[in-house]
Amino acid sequence: MDSTIGSQLQTCKPSNGMLGNPAQNGATILDSNAPPSVVVADATLGRHLARRLVEIGVKDVFSVPGDFNLTLLDHHIAEPGLKNIGCCNELNAGYAADGYARSRGVGACVVTFTVGGLSIINAIAGAYSENLPVICIVGGPNTNDYGTNRILHHTIGLSDFSQELRCFQTVTCYQAVVNNLEDAHEQIDRAISTSLKESKPVYISISCNLPAIPHPTFTREPIPFSLSPRSSNKMGLEAAVEAAATFLNKAVKPVIIGGPKLRVAKACEAFVELADACGYPIGVMPSAKGLVPEHHSRFIGTYWGAVSTSFCAEIVESADAYLFVGPIFNDYSSVGYSLLVKKEKAIVVQPDRVVIANGPAFGCVLMKDFLQALAKKVNRNPTAFENYQRIFIPDGVPNKSEPKEPLRVNIMFQHVQKMLSSSTAVIAETGDSWFNCQKLKLPEGCGWCCRYEFQMQYGSIGWSVGATLGYAQSVPDKRVISCIGDGSFQVTAQDVSTMLRCEQKSIIFLINNGGYTIEVEIHDGPYNVIKNWDYTGLVEAIPMVKETAGQKRFAMKKS
């Protein structure tokens, strides 16, 4: 593959074959003799998109090359400050962008038309469920193929190129199909700004013959985004705060519980401000672990119904008022909808809405504004926390292992606990690692804020391998500790090689259960047993003994 900017496979070249003539379908190409003030050689769509990604904080793009995205990848590689991370498959590229977005606030991935897009869509759906801004870029058909009734490769054999787009419409908040340079600038900027504002993934399809073509709209540096800050309705905010303060100040033993939407609302600090002011015991929903500081003096653990941290459920469910901030009550987080909480005792605060008991509800009230204002109105009441202190018993220490005794999970996690510090981050895979990692106590600097991650809403097994790759790439100063079951690892194991290629220092604790343990607990059967691998042998086989021919070729080109 030729890595020079502007090179393309024949199918992705302008039909006229050169830059001196007008292209079809509105992809205007100015004469090569035009004065520099009108257009310059690098004023291209590919360069504009690459610079936009750098501008919003993306330093690494996760990709799988394909013949529809090669020139686009050339521009990413050429852009200072942007690194292309080649992944083993599209699913892992999407998971890596998910993990990256959890740390840096936005992630990006690039794949090819349809075969790549439909492969990555599962990861994009997971990012959508977790409210993560991921820019999913797909190399699309040549502009000259639209409307021709041609059947292209990498499709299902129809001349309709919209199948991929239709699939992405349900798992992204905005879709841009760029097959015309006249409005490409506007479409790209609108897609990226929508992703940032909505905190959801977006889909951008770029025709494969467009990235290297100069156009006047790209002659200048991208104008910095100016995203208008959202603000609360002033009267609604005042009314919501007054109603909530009255409700809480009447309670004898209120509690406060943080939920996963604290992240999307960017309200973690406001939550702590309120917690400091009110004196209530602080719990956290399982999917919000890492968003609330566990070193806080009144932190009582994870509220997860019957599988809560010891004594946490007793305090929450015996309270006469609970303030849920950013919750998601799904079948996972509610343990099959078995939580013993009553709606008439609850205040539920969502990113832009507050509901008090069975009513009233206040819209256009931002969570951050509400929490900060409530902190100034609520009376301090430590009664529920004093009750917790009376019943609390410290956790016991697991019995020591006997010589030659098989390693027990509780002993292993005792060692994991000792490894945690302000320089580590924890990623927990879907399955039994959820429950084991919930018991870890995050030290100061590790869990404040967002240094513990897992995918509770979507729960796609194998997510953690790609997410570890992306997360570690975004925070090279931290060591990522991932806890992954063998069944999940086998789904996405290939990209351990990419971690080694990027010289990451992550640690993977692979819990070899001999199958899908969490499924066994739900319903056992022979389908839950998987083939055992030589996992250490697998990893030892990955490091390259010598340079490949491809590496030598590109090393010579660079020199």
Automatic annotation (TrEMBL):
Catalytic activity of the protein: a 2-oxocarboxylate + H(+) = an aldehyde + CO2
Residues that, per the record, bind Mg(2+): D486, N513, G515
Top-rank EC class of the record's enzyme: lyase
EC number(s) stated in the UniProt entry for this protein: 4.1.1.1
A matching Pfam family: TPP_enzyme_C
Domain of life: Eukaryota
Domain Thiamine pyrophosphate enzyme TPP-binding stretches: 456-518
Domain Thiamine pyrophosphate enzyme central as annotated: residue spans: 241-359
Keyword Glycosyltransferase carried by entry: no
CDD domains: TPP_PDC_IPDC (cd02005), TPP_PYR_PDC_IPDC_like (cd07038)
InterPro entries: DHS-like_NAD/FAD-binding_dom, PDC/IPDC-like, THDP-binding, Thiamin_PyroP_enz_cen_dom, Thiamin_PyroP_enz_TPP-bd_dom, TPP_enzyme_TPP-bd, TPP_PDC_IPDC, TPP_PYR_PDC_IPDC-like
Record GO biological process: aromatic amino acid family catabolic process to alcohol via Ehrlich pathway
Domain Thiamine pyrophosphate enzyme N-terminal TPP-binding: 44-149
Keyword terms: Decarboxylase, Lyase, Magnesium, Metal-binding, Pyruvate, Stress response, Thiamine pyrophosphate
Signal peptide: none
Coiled coil: none
Cofactor(s) needed: a metal cation; Mg(2+); thiamine diphosphate
Family the entry assigns: Belongs to the TPP enzyme family.
Name of the protein in question: pyruvate decarboxylase
Lineage: Eukaryota, Viridiplantae, Streptophyta, Embryophyta, Tracheophyta
